[in-house]
Protein: F1 capsule-anchoring protein
Amino acid sequence: MASLHKALYFGGALISQNYYSHSLGIGQRLNQFGDVTFNHQYSSITSAEQGQVNGEKLRLHYVANFNKANASIRLNGEYYLQPHFNDFNNYAYNAKTDYYCCDYYKKEYGFDFSLSALIGTSQSLSLNINQEKYKEDQGKRTFYSLKFMQNTVNLSYDLDLSYYQYPTQKNEMLFGITFRIPLKRMGVDNTSLNLGYSYNPYDHYQTELGVSGRHLDNNLNYRVTSARANRARQVIRRVPITAMLRVNRLSDTSLEQTMRFTRRTAQVHWLPTRRGLP
Structure:
């Protein structure tokens, strides 16, 4: 890793049994306009079922915090040079089936945009737009989300309105509410008990019960949730575990780097759906 004129050059490789990946990139501070990184990522898997499975993509990431406006912007864009890119989490999760890709997941590009702002001393509003474009005849899928958050000392809640747009299937709208109870009075700081419920006008609803928290000066965020969903009279249970580690200073001129790890466990039943449960 080397830096020159506020630029950061970074890279790394991961080697495991039947798996290899590397990432090479460059980042740049834009002073009050935020930070931007651009990198090339490649993965290769040796599969007894499929032979050699290669994936390759270019990634652009931009983040900016505007303190005077109490707002922040994040943009992540990806372009796939080879469609079957697998990070190590995907590889580990799919290793039990030894199958790592299919024709449906031939992604061409994707992007994720989010805008967050404080609208009061204890209220915030966020907008998220996510789109994925697939090759051949799969078209593109677009997701819109608007979330309102109210924070108080003893009880907080989130209101979420989401809209899913599909190329060939019926679009979906989802309403959700999540209550968060801080556990500080029980001696557990920066941790809350969460109860959520979501519903769409079709045949799906979901309840969630979980715990989330922040530690290491807010650089480590985690969430453990038990979810139960009903769709078309089928019951789906799952326990997703999500953690995010933010490293603020890798060097004097480093950019903020974010790593996300997600693993799904205890899947009693799984059904392919238009939306696909996260």
Q: What stands out?
A: The longest strand covers residues 51-66. Residues 88-94 form the longest helix (7 residues). The mean pLDDT is 80. The helical segments are 88-94.
